[in-house]
Amino acid sequence: MRKKRPALAALGVVITLVLAGFAAVDASSSASGATPRSKLIVMAPAAPGGGWDLASRELQQALRAGSIVNNVQVVNVPGAGGTIGLAQFVEVGADPTRLMMTGTVMEGAITVNNSPVALEDTTPIARLAEDYEVLIVPADSPYHTLEDFLAAWRENPHGHAIGGGGLGGTDHLLAGLTAREAGIDPADLNYIAFAGGGEVLTALLSHTVEVGVSGYNDFRDQIEAGNLRALAISADAPVPGIDTPTLIEQGIDVALPNWRGLVAPPGITEAQREELIAIVTEMTRTPEWADALDRNKWVDSLLTGDAFADFIQEDQARVDTVIEELGL
């Protein structure tokens, strides 16, 4: 288990305030006799409109449509790259009717925000899928290609505001890695963190930031409507159905997948963990989930149980190394 570090004072205050709100959504499901097959509450630890919210609601629809779980609720607890939701989630008790969506973004936020809790403090259930980040600008931006922006960025690194999710998350890491590969000191980043992709979109359209970074699906509708222009995608190869060149294709040797997965609270029994794994595995075999993968351009990457726990430990170490190297 990760060694606990002192929590940031402000984070502690917010956690205290939201704990009561989450508890009010449903008072002790296990005490009322609910089981994972009868009821699940899924926390999306971000604001509505972002990647975790989308993944949680696609999960909700697939579970309902497949008649796998009778009642599935999604609750949003935004803030601090998901670490506010994480700190709240580990305190709900050994309740097998609760799940939390998580992923690469939270790993970075755990380190950057000096979180007193980590994913190792949860019960890993399953990694579901991977998607990719995009660098985006408004349609009226003077930057028509990635190189257009990089040229301006190199001349005045701190003079160009870049908006994305929480500090240390995938968006922040991609901005830092792109800067480094473009010959810019990541310490010069003018990075503005938002609670989710919806807020990044608002900041872009209001020209509060020049460039946005988030998951492709956070911006897909606005790209297709012509309101935004994608400059690059973080995949290691062209993605079928996405007409945006990769960073690698444009001379920036950076690829960064963004995984989504589910964890349960600490302390549940082995039998309860296996039941949750069975529920999620069954969900991934539904036509509704297959459709979600296709529509959202996600890559299926199902990994469950102990193998997923090992992956989290290894990936957290990888993210920590990147953050240290970038000085973030």
From TrEMBL:
<dbReference type="Pfam" id="PF03401">
    <property type="entry name" value="TctC"/>
</dbReference>
<keyword id="KW-0732">Signal</keyword>
<comment type="similarity">
    <text>Belongs to the UPF0065 (bug) family.</text>
</comment>
<dbReference type="InterPro" id="IPR042100">
    <property type="entry name" value="Bug_dom1"/>
</dbReference>
<feature type="signal peptide">
    <location>
        <begin position="1"/>
        <end position="23"/>
    </location>
</feature>
<protein>
    <submittedName>
        <fullName>Tripartite tricarboxylate transporter substrate-binding protein</fullName>
    </submittedName>
</protein>
<dbReference type="InterPro" id="IPR005064">
    <property type="entry name" value="BUG"/>
</dbReference>
